[in-house]
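Working notes for the structural subgroup meeting. M.R. asked for a predicted model of this chain before we commit to crystallization trials. I am recording the input and output together here so anyone reviewing the notebook later can reproduce the run.

Input as submitted:
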Amino acid sequence: MQPTDFRLFIPSKDFAFSQTFYQALGFSKDPVNDQLCIFSRGECTFFLQNFYNKGLAENLMMQLIVDDINAAFEQIQSMGEVAPKYEPIKQELWGKVIYLWGPAGELWDITQLTG
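Returned structure, recorded in token form:
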């Protein structure tokens, strides 16, 4: 088996608001049906599902690697109330990171790797 892609299924507490959140973050939406959408930006894709489980959502963490952490932070700040919870850029051992919480409690680790 040779994998060609890996897609995560992200839960949503409010399916419509989650779609707005991910579009404001710069992802394009491609509806699959009334319960599922594919979001993409460049080569990165994931599914957003109209399904919510608190334990799953609040323990889900994804890392999104970017080439410009400052541009990512500006994008998040421009989201206004759509992105109510995030932390400023932090320096970690592996690079610079922004922690951004999605509408269902999912955590995005947006990282510009060092080196």
